[in-house]
Structures are given as C-alpha cells and as structure tokens.
Amino acid sequence: MLPLGLLASGEQAEIMGIRERKESEPCECSKNKHRDEQCRIEGMGIRIGKRIEMLTNEGRGPLLLKVDESRIAVGRGMAMKILVRRNEI
Amino acid sequence: MSAESISEVMRDPVRPAAASLSEEKRTITVAVAGNPNSGKSTLINAIAGTRLHVGNWPGVTVEKKEALFEYEVKLIKLVDLPGTYSLSPYTQEEIITRDYLVHEMPDVIIDVMDATNLERNLYLTVQLLELDIPVIMALNMYDEAEKKGYTIDSNMMEEMLGVKIVPTIATRKAGLHDLLKAVVKLVDDPSSHHPKKLNYGEDIESAVSAVEKQLKDSYPSLAEKYPLRWLAFKFMEEDEHVQSELKISGDVLLIEDAVRHLKKAHEEDMESIMADARYAQAAGLTREVLKRPELRKTDLTEKIDRIALNRFLGIPLFLAAMWFMFKLTFDVSKPLGDWMNALTFGPFKRWAEALVGLIHAPAWMSSLVTDGVIAGVGSVLVFVPVIFAMMFFITFLEGSGYMARAAFVMDRAMHSIGLHGKSFIPMLLGFGCNVPAIYATRTLENQRDKALTALLIPLMSCGARLPVYVVFIGAFFPAYAGTVLWSLYVMGIALAIVMGLIFKRTLFKGEAPMFIMELPPYRLPSFKSLMIHTWEKGKHFLIKAGTYILAVSILVWFLLNLPWGVESKKDSYLGQVGQVVAPVLKPLGFGSWEAASSLMAGVIAKEIVVGTMGEIYVKKTGEEQSAVKPAFTADLIEIGTSFTTALRNSAENVFSTFGISSLSTKEDEKRSGLKSVLRTTFTPLSAYAFIVFVLLYMPCVVVAIAMRQEFGTWKWFGISFAYQMALAWLMAFVIYQGGTLLGIGG
Lengths: 89, 746
What we know:
- The structure holds two protein chains of two kinds.
- Chain A has helices at 33-43, 76-79; strands at residues 2-3, 12-18, 51-56, 63-67, 70-74, 82-86.
- Chain A has two helices and six strands; from the N terminus they run ββαβββαβ.
- By secondary structure, chain A is of the alpha+beta class.
- The longest helix of chain A is centred in the middle third of the chain and has 11 residues, at 33-43.
- In chain B, β4 (108-114), α3 (118-129) and β5 (135-140) form a beta-alpha-beta unit.
C-alpha cells in the first residue's frame, strides 16, 4: 500500500482506501467537508476497488490518472490521501 | 448495432414551434441530463439548432437553457441540465439538476451517456432512475466506443434497466430522429415503459421500505410532490438539503431504527453505503453489457498530453500558445478594424450629417448625433473584429480541450496563491470579458475559492481594455505591437499572483482546496460550433455597444456640452471633474483633464475610454474634414472594394504571421485624428503608464453588478475597487517615475 501520489507514470494500481482528514485540519466551509470531497471523487469514479493507471506524475504539481476511459487530474494533496496497491505487471 | 447502421442523419434542425400550433396541445417537457463531456450540449445543439454554449471543460453549462420546437405534431420543450456526475448536493450543478428534476417533474429525461465511459455514466443513470421519471438513454459517442473496439450489448442493457436505449452520434447528428421518436412514443403510450426498480440488496431495500412507509403515514401529501422512494433514500442519507427544504427531521421518521443495522454491518455512514450500492449497480451493469479488447492502445490524446503536460514544456508551451493567440488575433483583425473605422467616420458620418441636415435639426442635435453617438459608438465598434477574433481563438482553445490542460499545467503555480488549477479557467475566460468570468466562478466548490478567484479576475485584461491598448500601441509602439501587448497581459497575470499571495495571507487564511477535474480528450472543434460560440461570446460586446455604450456616449456628450454654450470642453461638467482629478494623476505622467475625464467615463465600461477620447480630442482637430462629399453610390462602391481589400489583407496576415505585419504598417495616418493628437499629448512612457493604469484600475460597472449577483453582497466588489485603484496608481507611478529617472522614452 502506498499513497497514490507516489505511483510513477505508467504504473497501474488498485485503490484500497481513502484516508480521513485529520481532526486538526481546518474545515471551514461545511462541517462535513471531508464527506463532500470523498463524494466528489467517488462520483468521478475514483473509489475503493477501482483499478487506475497513472498517466502523468512529474513528482510535483497535480497528477493525471486514467480511470476507465477518462482522464482525471488530481491535486497532489488529495493524491496523498488516496491509498493504492501497485499492480505488478 | 454498428455505428454505420445509425445511418439516419438529421439534416435540418427541427422546426421552430409554429404560431399556428396554438391549438390546445400539451407541451412535452424533456430534460436532458448527463455527465460533463458526454456530448450533451452537442446533442442539444444538433436537435434544436439553438445556440448553447458548448465548451470542452467540465461544468461549462451552468445556466439552464431551453429550446421549444415542434416534432411530429408534438410541441417539445428541451431543457438542458448542467453536466453532473451524481445527484448528491455538493456542487451547484448537482443541486440545479436535482432541484429541477424533483420540482419540475419533466415528462421524460434524456440521459446522455458517453458510450466510451459506461460505468461512470451509469452511476448517474442509476440515480436518475430513482426519481420515478421516465428515462430514455442516448448512448452517445457510439462511433468512438466502436473505434476503441468496445461492444455494448444495448439490448441487454435495455432489458436490465427497463429503459429505451438509442445509440447516437451527436457530432454527426446520427440517431437523433430515433431519439425524438422514442420520446414521442413514450409520451403517447406510457404503458410501453417498464422501468426496472433497481434492487440495492435486501438490507437497504427493507430499510428504505420502512422509511417510505413512515413518510407515507406521517406526511400523506408528500407523495404528490416527491418521488417517495427517492425521498426515503435522501432521509436515510441525512441529506441536509432535503431535510431543511421539507423541515422534517430524521427523528420523526425513525430513520435511526431503520438504518442502525446497516451502519453497524458496514461501519460507514449511510451516504457512503448508498453510494457503494449505487456504484455496485453501475459496475455490475457495465460488466454484463460491455466487452472491451484486452489490448490498450496509446491514443492520440495521451501522446499530445505527454508533451502538453510535460513538467518542463508545459508552461512554456502554454505561454507560447497565449502569445501566438494574441499575435494572430491582431494580425487577422487589424485590416478589418481599419475598414470599420473608415466606414464609420467616412460614409456613416456623412450620411448621418446629411440626414440630420435634411430634417433641419438644430446644430446641437447634429453635434449630438455625429460627435456624440457616431464618434462614441463608432470608435468602439471599430474593435468588433478584434474582439471577435480573440473570442474565436479562446473558443478554439476551449473546444479543443487545451483549456483544461492549461488548468492542469497551472495548478502548481495556482497553489502558491492559495487556489488550484480549476480557478484558472474562470481567470482565463477573464481575458475575453470579466463578466462571464465572474459568473464562471460558480463552478468552483466553495465560497473561499469563488471569492478569491473573483477578486483576481479583474486583473485579467479583458477584451474591453483592448481598444485602449490598440489605439495607444498603434500611436506609440507600432514596431513592438505584439510584445507591448503581451507585456500588459503578463503584467496582469504577475500582479494577480502577487495579490493572490497577499490575499492568501490576509483575507483568505486556511488551506488550499483540493483539485480534481476531468481532462476531456482532444478534439478538433467543428467550424459550426466555433462560429456559434464565438458569436455567443462576442455578442455581449455588440449588445454593450448598442445599449450601454450608446447611452454613455450620449451622457458623456451632454456632460461635455453642459452647461449650455460652453466654449471649451474644459469648462464642461466632465472637464471640470477631470480638472479636479487630474492633479492626482499628475505623478503618473498623464495629469491632463482630458485623460482624467476619459478614465472616469471608462468606469462604465473600459472601452469607453477610447470613445470619450475620440470625442474630446477629435473635436479639437475635427473641423479639418474635407468639404468634398462623394455621392451615395460612390460610397457604396468604396465600401465594397475596401472590404475585399481588408479581407485579403487579413487572410494574408495569417500566413505572414511570423513577421510582424499589420500593427507595424505605416498606414496609421489614415486612422482618425485621435492617434496623432495623442502623440502630441503623451510621451511613449506616459502612454505606457496610461495603458497600465487602464489595465489595473477599477473593474467596470457590469463586473460590479456581476459580483454583487454572485455573492449577494457588495463586500467583494468593495475590496476589488479599493485594491485595484491603489494598485493602478502605484504601478503607473513606478513605471512613469522609474522610467523618467532612467531617461526612457521621456
């Protein structure tokens, strides 16, 4: 298991979990901001059990995933909260 | 079914609703829902021929658009819903879609599916089906799915969902008749529709029936207004939106009792459990009906992305694209702009004078028409070609899919100012016009992002500022036109970064929000859709010129000519106020009352700066109009020949674009006297300080109104006004005084 943000370009992985936001982190706009975020990424197909491919990970800035047939750009902060298991090819 | 067999192509858009159809006939309301980038807007455009705004980045249709037309003697009202991935209440688009469907209860929902991306699209379908509104599925982009080697068993899918499925290729207008026929058939014969109730598993089903029953018993009237099963789900999910709307708390419905064991078994909140259950349906369906080849080819989009999103190449490429766009904009539009200019101040003015003379109007009236209306509106209309060319290129970038890449490339930079890449899109739109850019901030998820983005948008140099630059650049920097112009845009961006950093540390403390967005595949936008959307964007400018600017030109004319009988413009009202303000602008190099008055008029809309200057300055030298008045027919011939020359020049410029062409040509002198007058009152340095001031000073009134509308308070506009005035003054001061010290262009 490793955070999605550490997956190299071209690697494939399965999503294992999405980490909760830490209590200490501020949530300013709504009391269940974490849930909002999780729901939005799940709506775009990034959910537990999904197999994804890392298209672009430059080591900084956002990264680009291939989820089914769509290309989803994810911010690095978010990507570090998503845990994946790398598929050995 | 193969893509070729969807042979029937819709050649003409359906007929508009004829007036004769007024006999008692019920309108069929059809809501069109679907994921972003599923081709929804293209499909609606193809059916109704309406002018919807189709972009290529997610979330572009935020406004509700409708089309009314006649089909097989039925009156159909199409309602375009915003593109959404889900019906949860987390983004504006989702809330709009959901509220519309639940409250308006359309007769049919057309669910536009991206056939290349079944699972994610089905997730939305599953939620639509909960609403108890008949659904017809448009399996769109069928050809692309086939190209990828997919086979979709649409018969089985029809069977499993109990909805009619029509394969469509909206870009080629194929399958649309079948789709509309299916709609008509379903409305004519509701019994033909047998939607399957999707089973979410025994645990969930028994819980939802319990809640549904509780709802029915406690609030019998609800069933008329809401689909009860859906409502029950929402209460189980503790949907705050629904709870507050109905003012029913979950306690009354004994929700906790119903879902306790579910929560315990899954160790999750109900919303996640429901999302999983819905997703399981979508995934299961996809597994059943979709066959895809094992081998995955790298497609063109991936190849382009490898370069466009490259860590080293991405940003330079983006900047180059922007520079190229501005350059091309000017080269193409300059000859046409000159033509419009000659037209307005030549024949139009002469004709207006003749007309006014014909009705023996008093002298002041003739002055109002020629110096007020024609000079004012005319000087702005001259920029129609520039604005449209610019909108054309922006539309192209949007439609091709590059705009979303720009957001990706810029995400890191945006992070440093407390925003993410998605905020970059409204900002980019700001280059066209700040007003739609402010409205585009509603695609952002939270108030913090929205407010911060809106505050920075006015620093993006909008199309309205262009006329001012063009006049000054043409007068002072013809040899470096492209570069000077580019420097203004870059300065706006750089200052946005600085201000963003400041705001992040003061007004907007707290973490940057997360970034997630879909990058659509690259595609070549069709010429027709380019034209439609260029027109959509540009038309605001035309409307502004026709209304606002006309009104303001008249107002300015009065301010310039009142009190009655003023000898010099200097003593007019506007001139007087200008004189009061001028000393403040003195250290910036343009402390004349003329400049001050023009800037004040520009608060209404920045392009008015040019119009007002036209009125103030041109009057001075104005009387040198030649006495020779060509005949009407001669005018017409001249208009025609000069237009073809202009067209030829602009076409030539496209190909000679690598050399600096049009802006540097020396035929400036033909333009109205404005430029030559400006050369006597400004130095190149003060001219540059002046255009920088125009770039930065307070946004126009329309932007103010847009900000008020979006945020429901004047607060953000107030902040924007204050910081921009300060920034404009400061920058102009630094440029002018610094330049003078260094002895540049003095």
